[in-house]
Amino acid sequence: xxxxxxxxxxxxxxxxxxxxxxxxxxxxxxxxxxxxxxxxxxxxxxxxxxxxxxxxxxxxxxxxxxxxxxxxxxxxxxxxxxxxxxxxxxxxxxxxxxxxxxxxxxxxxxxxxxxxxxxxxxxxxxxxxxxxxxxxxxxxxxxxxxxxxxxxxxxxxxxxxxxxxxxxxxxxxxxxxxxxxxxxxxxxxxxxxxxxxxxxxxxxxxxxxxxxxxxxxxxxxxxxxxxxxxxxxxxxxxxxxxxxxxxxxxxxxxxxxxxxxxxxxxxxxxxxxxxxxxxxxxxxxxxxxxxxxxxxxxxxxxxxxxxxxxxxxxxxxxxxxxxxxxxxxxxxxxxxxxxxxxxxxxxxxxxxxxxxxxxxxxxxxxxxxxxxxxxxxxxxxxxxxxxxxxxxxxxxxxxxxxxxxxxxxxxxxxxxxxxxxxxxxxxxxxxxxxxxxxxxxxxxxxxxxxxxxxxxxxxxxxxxx
Length: 465
Fold this sequence. Notes:
Layout: H1 11-43, E1 46-47, H2 51-58, H3 60-65, E2 79-83, E3 89-92, H4 96-107, E4 117-123, E5 129-135, E6 139-140, H5 143-148, H6 152-194, H7 208-248, H8 250-265, H9 269-298, E7 307-311, H10 312-328, E8 333-339, E9 344-348, H11 351-369, E10 375-385, E11 388-397, H12 404-409, H13 430-440, E12 444-449, E13 455-462
Helix pairs in contact: 1-6, 6-7, 7-9, 8-9, 8-10, 10-11, 11-13
């Protein structure tokens, strides 16, 4: 993988470079073979291409006047035959069948045959005709080598073709390795994108075209990563909504259970009717939670733009009633101190229900940690911070209070490390849900301990009256 600052080269220039290298190899190969030929020719190891022709012409007069012994005047690499005036074959190195064909070709004016094969006719003084077959090709001087390799041109061409093929293979192999090394990073990046393993940086290559593909893959990876993050975040929000709603069902169930237990302990008809009414109201709450749960499973994650509003007076009265119902099962003393002036809180749709869920989660937690016949104090007041106004709700229980560790991590999801506040079925969701709901509307949650060492939870909710 090449770094970004290194100079890029186009793929066609790489190809030209390898083509030039191959051509240079071919030139060197051809020059080497020519030099080898000249060296062998210079040392006499091979005969020149016109050696046979020159020797025949040099001895032509002697052959013409000789009465026999032509084989001593003709190079041993040539074939010959002596024919009478009527074409009868008298002697020579031709066999009779070959001699007949050669005579007929000569009579028809053919002075050559096949590749580089020529005929030279010399008429002797006695009327006989000597036909000599020779070639204009270089040959080895050594008779054994000449017999094994009769055509030196074919040998040199064969060697050239073998070395040419070797050059092609080596050049293609080297070019293939060069490209494979650069394509590996491309293949690796594409494979990671395919497997959605998106934790990797931008890859670079010294090949311009490959680097452009890597850049495109990196942009694709960024887009895919962003899309997946949005999907994961939407899924996470949906799971949190489902978990929060499932957790919130605990509050009306607690009230229902407490009222049902009290019904068994009293004969007062009026109280029974009151508790039965609370059971019906809390059952309606559970039905609403289940509807919200169904909507959470169906929604796409977009926030609603519809507006919502509520009055603080009726809201706080409802909180007081539900707090008293929650504490009735443990015979808790519920002290409500509401010093909040009457105002209207506005926000998006569902703002009242979500704030109610947040406050009831805190009250439910406080009621759980209070001992039987303990005290739960709920205070509501207006809080001014610079130009902002908040509804401040403080819930204080008479339980053992928060540990130092819980004060740091109590609002984290699934946190259950508070060993001092135990004894009930808690799953580390209540305060996390409350904190999440408040942050959604610009509020916040604080944990602390009161002067009496009981746990104290403070809700700050912005008022935009």
